[in-house]
Amino acid sequence: MTVISSESTRAMTSPSITVWRLCLPYKQWHKTAKISTSSRDLLLLTATLEERSWVAEFAPLPPFSEESIEDVMAQLPEVAQWIETWIHFDVPQKAEASIPLSWAKSIQWGISGMISSNTLANAQKKGGIQHLDVHTLLPPGDEAHALAGECAEKTAFKVKVHPDSWEPLLDTLRAHHQQHPDSRWVLDVNEKGSLEWLYEVDTWCKKHQFDALQYMEDPMVVRTPQEARTLIEQSPIKLGFDEFLQPRRRQENYGLNEGLESLKGAICVLKPALHGTRHESITLIEQAQKVGVPVVISTLMESSIGRALATDLALSHGSPTYTHGLDTGHLFEIDLEPFGGKLQTTFEKLPVKPVVCYSKTTLT
Fold first, then answer.
1. Which whole number is the average pLDDT over 343-348?
2. Average pLDDT for residues 323-339, to the nearest whole number?
3. Distance, CA of 303 to CA of 339 (rounded, Å)
4. Percent with pLDDT over 90 in the chain
């Protein structure tokens, strides 16, 4: 690993900045339609100045993210220089507004969180974080075991489902729902379905009196706002859209406002880490609210640090009608300590020791 160094002769008031690259192991192999991995690769930045400290997590996840870990690492010297200018973040709104839009989206989100982290930590200590309805992501392929074990006391769930093997899975969900009538479900299809299949599922649900589905997420590939409108009008099941509004999908094909307008009658699933600063996500949510589209906040399989920031956003701006996709921490074998915890405790537990990839004081 090449270590990027910076001048160690700065003024005594300059912060000490260190960035680690680390892998948080999952309890079991995590597979989706687009990724298959046993751990979560991310960067963790800490800044310390005058007995105060700040932390930021940069957790891109290709192919969902436009950037890779290496892309983020290339921007670390510029990020460090910005932190030295704005450290203390006494005027949070002004500091966030100064975050360069040329930075990777995961950096923008992480730094935005660093700016608000002290406020969030204080709110948690004072009990300011109120109750929020969330759904638990069940491990793909091990849903029955999870429902009978560590997730038995949960009340809302998200399940990865494939059109080629959906009936046995829905039988499992129905059996659990019969024992827990208050349970609610989100089915994530990862764009592998079809309109005909949606009607099959709807027929099955009516036949078995299974009415606990909140919505079906990303049922099939949608490339344009017109395709989204048509699918929403034709679908017999409530739909949620995640990938359709992600920056890598939109690019220059259609604008955000046009995309949101086309989701009337459906749900927007927002992963803040893919959209940049907290302000960018809030702007998107407010635009969605203007056209009557509820927004569900979801994580990008981040550590407890990223999940706490997403939770804060869901509490302040998310839809109160639907559960939010924030309960993914149970999938980790080892997670980062929450705000106020000692990171070193986690580092010592990791099977692969973190590597310092940026430090102000590291010499080449």
1. 86
2. 88
3. 11
4. 76
Tokens of 33: 């339609």
Residues 235 and 42: their CA atoms lie apart, in Å, by 38
pTM passes above 0.85: yes
Distance between CA atoms of residues 303 and 144, nearest Å? 25
Query: pLDDT, tens digit, for every residue of 79-123?
Result: 999 999 998 888 999 999 999 999 999 999 999 999 987 555 444
**Residue 350 near residue 22, CB atoms below 8 Å:** yes
- The C-alpha atoms of residue 328 and residue 225 are separated, in whole angstroms, by 30
User: Are the CB atoms for 284 and 5 separated by under 8 Å?
Assistant: no
What order of strands is seen across the sheet that includes strand 4-5?
4-5, 355-359, 16-31, 36-49, 52-58
Do residues 112 and 99 touch, judged by C-beta distance below 8 A? yes
DSSP 6-25: --S-S-TTSPEEEEEEEEEE
Q: Compute the average pLDDT of residues 157-173.
A: 95
Distances, alpha carbon 18 to alpha carbons 67, 138, 276, in Å: 21, 34, 22
